[in-house]
Every structure is written in C-alpha cells, then in structure tokens.
C-alpha cells in the first residue's frame, strides 16, 4: 500500500506541479522514491528523477530492474544518462546494456573511461546467463606470501577497488586462486604472520558457470562472497551475497511467471505498458490453444464410446483436473529440487521411479474413493472404470511431471517452461486416452 507521501508525489507527477514535486522529492526517503518510480510509467518517473540530487538519483536507479532502467534511460537527458551510467558498477552496466538497443549500448560504452570500459567489456564477453556477466571484476587478491600487515595496508589504500572487504581471494605468483582469507582472521592475526598460514581452502566457480546455479550455491554455503575464476583458475571477479540474492529472486520470479503461462515482465507491473503485458501472455495462450486441440481430437476419436455410455462424459473434468494437478505437483517439486541442487540430470531414473510410486499411492487412495462414490450412484462397472482411471492417470501424471523438468534441464531449456501449462495439456490428452481405453475394456463397448 502506498504511503500518503508516495500518493502525493504521484499526484504531483500526474498534474505537473514541479515546484511541489521538487520539495516533496527532496524530503522523501529512498524507499519512497523507488516505490513512486515503480508505480508510474517510465516517462512520468523521469520527471521526478530529473529533480533528484545526483547521489539520490543513483541510489534509486540502482534499485530498479534492468528493464525498467532501460525504459527510464529513454526518457532522460543525454548528460544525465552518461552521469548515471558512469557511476554504476560494471556488473550493473552489463545487465543494463542487455536491455537497450545496440546503438544506445555503443554510445553508452564510448562515454566511459578506458578503465571502466575495459571492465564492462570483459563482462560482456562472457555468455548470457553465465555468472561472468553478473560478477564484479572489482577485486584485488593478495599473494599467499605476503604478511598480514601488508594485506591490511593494501585494504586501506585500495578499499575503493574492492566489491567486498570481508572475503579476500588469495593467489599465487601466477594469479591462480589458492585460498581465501576473511577480514576477521586478518584482524586477529599477528601483523608479521603470512597470509598462507591463515587462509582457508576456497569454494569458487568458473566465470562460464550458470549464474543461477552459482548464486544458489553461494547462498547454500552461507558465505559472504565467492571468488570467480577463468578456465585456468585465475581470479577474474567475485560474486557477493547481495548479488546472489538478486539473481535468485529474478530466477524465482521468472519461474513463477512461466508456471502461470506467461513470460516475466522484467519491470514493475504498474509501470509496464499494457502492450508489453499483452505480449508476455499472448504467445503462451496461442501455444496452449494449439496444444488443447489434442484434447479435442481425443474426444472426437472416442465420440462413439461417449454416445454409448453418456455418463462417462460427467467424469471428464474430474479426471483431467486430477491428472493435471498431480503432474504439476510433481513438476513443481522437482523443479525446486533442481534449483536447490538436490536433484541432477543423472538422477532422472531415480526421480521417475520415486514419482511413479508416489503417483501410484495417490492414485490408489483417490481411485478407492472414486470407485466407492461412482459405484453408489452409477453401479460397479462405472465405479471400476473411474477407480482404475484415477489410479492410472495419477501414476502417469506424477511420472511425467517429475521427469520433464530434468529432461528440460539436460537439453538446456528452462525447467519452468515444462511446468503447469504444458504438463496440464499433456495429461489432459493422455488421461482421456487412458480413460476411454479402460472404459472400452471394462464395459465391453
């Protein structure tokens, strides 16, 4: 819910009352300003953004999603754009450049100093989706042969070059990672002690590793940061816990969106143009509409069976809904397990066997209940059909729902894409086939 100050700021932006807007914006907190910018279209948000002091404007800008940042840049003056872009961290610049047209990206890069342009270009050289694009190259490792006193002095004199001061990578003479040392350990050690004597074994990731997997690994081990190395184990950057949290949050948001059958907006909802929202949903709706034709085709094939035993039609929503829900439960559970590293692609057979047993047990319980209710109303024959179908559909749906995310991961696709919408459609069509085959066998039609 918006605060009274945020509502007044939005009203002043809409009415064009620049004098009052300037006064209120100067008094507002950074969280208030971020909330306002996220609740209005980018062009209107830029009106208030121009009135902010440089340091406050940068804080607000850094808090926005990369897509929203790109929209805001379109509405700002060139000189303000250059100032903001220069002050961003290299990893934030790389994320923003992915959202703007190539001509704009080239212009922004040309405005950087040679040093800053080099760091940003280095990140852009890594594949999209890799941790190399999201790490900070602002890291100054210390050599293992240096003393603690030397290292502490290095931290004092070059602190602005460090993304984090709490975890310092340690390298050998060839810049290869050999350990890490914490600021706490350095403070408690004697000044003449050698770094190699207090460093610990490093947990690192390669710059080409998947960003989401690496971020989740860092959060799982509970460290403040993780060194990032190249193919030869040379230090090229560091991933901090706050950046890891952002990566995981963005990935989870994307998964939730795709579970619901649409693409993530990558911008705050209220500030996203209506046409962009339509584009994020229409493709999935078209795909699902085409997929649903399979269900219609199945019904058409078994039209004569339905004509002979009309009561079978009454149970179609129950069976398709149960199959879809069972498959989605399995897919959601396994997708989450993949994200946390509890399950790997090599575990596909173990997951299939496990979900088949789970589905069979669920189907047995639901099938027994369905048999009892259907038998009381429509007789033993129909009850048997419903019971056996529920048993079969639940077993099939859980098995398919469990292995589909793993297959997707193995072929490099997003497991979330193979979640609710596609599994529901697949289970609908397959479940109907099983239903009518069982009905024909039991009823002799």
Give the topology, please.
Elements: H1 4-15, H2 18-27, H3 30-39, H4 42-49, H5 54-63, H6 66-75, H7 78-87, H8 90-97, H9 102-110, H10 114-124, E1 142-143, H11 148-157, E2 167-171, E3 177-182, H12 183-188, H13 195-198, E4 205-206, H14 211-221, E5 225-229, E6 235-240, H15 241-259, H16 274-301, H17 303-308, H18 316-340, H19 348-378, H20 380-410, H21 420-443
Parallel strand pairs: 1-2, 4-5
Antiparallel strand pairs: 2-3, 5-6
Short description:
This protein is mostly helical and 445 residues long.
Secondary structure class reads: mainly alpha
Helix content: 55-70%
Average pLDDT number: 81
Determine the strand fraction and express it as a percent band: 5-15%
The dominant shape is globular
Instruction: Examine the coordinates and then state which fold CATH places here, giving the name of the CATH topology of the largest domain.
Output: Tetracycline Repressor, domain 2
- CATH C-level category of the largest domain: Mainly Alpha
Q: Distance between termini? A: 60 Å
Uncertain runs are: none
How many strands, which pairing sense, and closed or not: the largest β-sheet? 3 strands, mixed
The CATH homologous superfamily of the largest domain is termed SLC41 divalent cation transporters, integral membrane domain
Helix count from the secondary structure assignment: 21
């Amino acid at each position: 819910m918006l605060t009274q100050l945020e509502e007044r700021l939005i009203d002043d932006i809409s009415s064009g009352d620049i004098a009052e807007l300037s006064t209120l914006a100067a008094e507002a907190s950074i969280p208030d300003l971020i909330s306002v910018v996220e609740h209005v279209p980018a062009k209107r948000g830029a009106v208030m953004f121009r009135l902010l002091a440089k340091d406050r404007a940068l804080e607000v800008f850094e808090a926005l999603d990369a897509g929203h940042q790109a929209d805001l840049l379109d509405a700002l003056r060139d000189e303000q754009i250059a100032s903001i872009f220069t002050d961003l961290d290299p990893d934030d610049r790389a994320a923003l450049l992915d959202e703007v047209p190539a001509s704009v990206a080239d212009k922004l890069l040309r405005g950087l100093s040679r040093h800053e342009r080099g760091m940003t270009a280095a990140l852009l050289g890594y594949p999209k989706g890799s941790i190399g694009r999201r790490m900070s190259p602002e890291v100054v490792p210390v050599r293992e042969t240096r003393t603690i006193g030397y290292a502490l002095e290095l931290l004092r004199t070059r602190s602005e070059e460090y993304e984090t001061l709490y975890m310092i990578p340690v390298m050998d003479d060839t810049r290869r990672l050999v350990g890490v040392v914490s600021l706490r350990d350095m403070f408690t050690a004697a000044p003449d002690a050698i770094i190699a004597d207090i460093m610990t074994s490093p947990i690192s990731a390669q710059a080409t590793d998947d960003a989401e997997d690496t971020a989740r690994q860092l959060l799982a081990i509970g460290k403040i940061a993780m060194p990032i190395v190249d193919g030869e184990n040379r230090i090229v950057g560091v991933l901090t816990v706050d950046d890891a949290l952002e990566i995981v949050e963005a990935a989870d948001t994307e998964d939730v969106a795709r579970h619901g059958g649409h693409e993530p907006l990558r911008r705050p909802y209220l500030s996203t143009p209506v046409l962009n929202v339509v584009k994020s949903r229409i493709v999935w709706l078209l795909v699902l509409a085409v997929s649903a034709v399979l269900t219609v085709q199945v019904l058409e094939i078994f039209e004569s069976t339905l004509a002979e035993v009309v009561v079978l039609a009454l149970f179609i929503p129950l069976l398709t809904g149960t199959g879809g829900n069972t498959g989605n439960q399995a897919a959601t559970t396994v997708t989450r397990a993949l994200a946390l590293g509890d399950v790997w692609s090599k575990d596909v057979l173990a997951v299939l066997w496990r979900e088949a047993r789970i589905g069979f047990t669920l189907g047995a319980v639901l099938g027994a209940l369905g048999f009892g209710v259907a038998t009381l109303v429509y007789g033993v024959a129909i009850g048997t059909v419903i019971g056996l179908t529920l048993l079969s559909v639940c077993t099939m749906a859980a098995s398919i729902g469990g292995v589909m995310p793993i297959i997707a991961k193995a072929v490099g696709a997003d497991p979330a894409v193979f979640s609710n919408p596609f599994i529901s459609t697949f289970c609908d069509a397959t479940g109907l086939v099983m239903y009518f085959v069982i009905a024909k066998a039991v009823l002799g039609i």
